[in-house]
């Protein structure tokens, strides 16, 4: 059985993107393929059972028959690491992973194992990515993101920890590369990694839809009050602007798909945004374009100020997304900038983009070939 252990050089590098796209490609080839995320950090309940969010995503998108306890055997709730260090956790977590691994791998030709973060994540509970890959006898594929020096440095650093545990790193994938602006970057990365004996197994081009949070993600991760949902909560936030100027100038600075952050007492700006949204949708409809994605994406009201009921009604009539945060404007902008972008089952457009992106830019047969070779000892 081929098993592919996916690790990353850090958070938000695109490991889940590669995992989802790779799983789709393997299943699409008719290969009996299983999935497991041995150690998870962010979890939710599925049928009343706690499981890692990425494991839930894979199970639901691909209809995997395995129970949540098998595809996500260990998750780390709040306070778990303190309990582990204090000796309060007595269960053999490694044995739990091995039991789940045996169940998921049965009858499969390929097993995709998704790690958690960089090679050292999980060390605090003696289950780092490198240690788990060693336990499963798996090779690793490392995912990093665009750049030249940083991805190579990070990949080499992570490879060193895997090597210390006797785990063979087969290669790397670099994500979020702007190939239009840097068409030669693929070759440069390939040469740079080859100098360290690491094969570049693919480069994924940057796609805004995969990196930008949606309006629903904003609502999910920030404590606030929804004033109006607008026509499309799955719309990506492509830009963020702060309206700290006159209304006409604020609208000139706003972009299609942008989120405008404005103090709640700037009713001139809020009213102008509502009127602009209506005009943008009308223009899109007249020209056969998608009116639901026309104009700005929405408004975030800040400063603890609430607009008058008249202005609120105007926003609702315009069908413009509007969210109230009891934060100062700069604080709100900073937190929105740092939103953690995760793929959810309902993100159908994003999921299809991921499948196409991986199928078009990774040589799946080559990856399968590398992971079929005997493990070096």
Keywords for this entry:
Udp-n-acetylmuramoylalanyl-d-glutamate--2,6- Diaminopimelate Ligase, Chain: A, domain 1, Rossmann fold, alpha/beta, 377 residues, five-stranded mixed sheet, six-stranded parallel sheet, 2 domains
Q: How many beta-strand runs?
A: 15
| Whole-number count of domains | 2
Helix content: 40-55%
Q: Quickly count the helices.
A: 16
Rg value: 23 Å
CATH topology of the largest domain: Rossmann fold
CATH architecture of the largest domain: 3-Layer(aba) Sandwich
What CATH first level of the largest domain would be assigned? Alpha Beta
The major pleated sheet works out as: 6 strands, parallel
- Taken as a percent bin, the fraction of beta residues is 15-25%
- Biggest sheet, spatial arrangement of strands: 2-7-1-8-9-10
The end-to-end distance, rounded to whole angstroms, is 18 Å
Question: How would you describe the oligomerization state of the chains in this entry?
Answer: single chain
Classified in CATH, the superfamily of the largest domain is: P-loop containing nucleotide triphosphate hydrolases
- Low-pLDDT runs of 5+ residues are none
Shape: globular
Question: What does the average pLDDT come to?
Answer: 91
Helix/strand/pairing category = alpha/beta
């Amino acid at each position: 059985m081929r098993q592919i252990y996916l690790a990353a050089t850090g958070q938000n590098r695109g490991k889940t993107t590669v995992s989802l796209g790779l799983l789709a490609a393997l299943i699409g080839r008719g290969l009996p393929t299983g999935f497991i995320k041995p150690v998870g950090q962010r979890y939710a309940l599925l049928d009343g059972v706690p499981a890692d969010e990425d494991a839930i995503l894979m199970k639901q998108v691909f209809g995997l028959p395995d129970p949540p306890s098998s595809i996500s055997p260990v998750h780390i709730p709040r306070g778990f690491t303190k309990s582990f260090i204090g000796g309060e956790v007595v269960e053999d977590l490694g044995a739990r992973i091995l039991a789940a691994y045996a169940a998921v791998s049965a009858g499969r030709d390929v097993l995709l194992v998704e790690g958690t973060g960089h090679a050292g994540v999980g060390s605090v509970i003696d289950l780092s990515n490198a240690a788990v890959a060693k336990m499963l006898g798996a090779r690793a594929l490392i995912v990093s993101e665009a750049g030249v020096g940083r991805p190579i440095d990070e990949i080499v650093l992570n490879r060193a920890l895997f090597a210390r545990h006797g785990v063979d790193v087969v290669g790397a994938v670099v994500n979020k590369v702007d190939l239009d602006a840097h068409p030669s970057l693929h070759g440069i990365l390939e040469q740079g990694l080859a100098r360290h004996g690491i094969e570049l197994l693919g480069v994924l081009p940057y796609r805004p839809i995969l990196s930008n949070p949606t309006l629903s993600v904003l609502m999910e991760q920030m404590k606030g009050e929804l004033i109006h949902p607008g026509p499309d909560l799955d719309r990506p936030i492509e830009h963020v602007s702060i309206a700290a100027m006159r209304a006409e100038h604020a609208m000139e600075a706003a972009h299609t798909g942008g989120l405008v952050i404005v103090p709640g007492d700037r009713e001139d700006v809020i009213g102008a945004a509502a009127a602009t949204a209506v005009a943008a949708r009308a223009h899109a409809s007249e020209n056969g374009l998608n009116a639901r994605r026309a104009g700005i994406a929405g408004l975030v009201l800040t400063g603890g100020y609430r607009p008058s009921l008249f202005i609120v009604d105007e926003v609702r009539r315009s069908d413009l997304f509007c969210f109230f945060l009891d934060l100062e404007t700069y604080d709100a902008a900073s937190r929105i900038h740092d939103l953690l972008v995760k793929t959810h089952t309902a993100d159908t457009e994003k999921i299809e983009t991921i499948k196409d992106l991986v199928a078009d830019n990774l040589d799946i047969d080559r990856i399968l070939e590398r992971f079929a070779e005997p493990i070096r000892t």
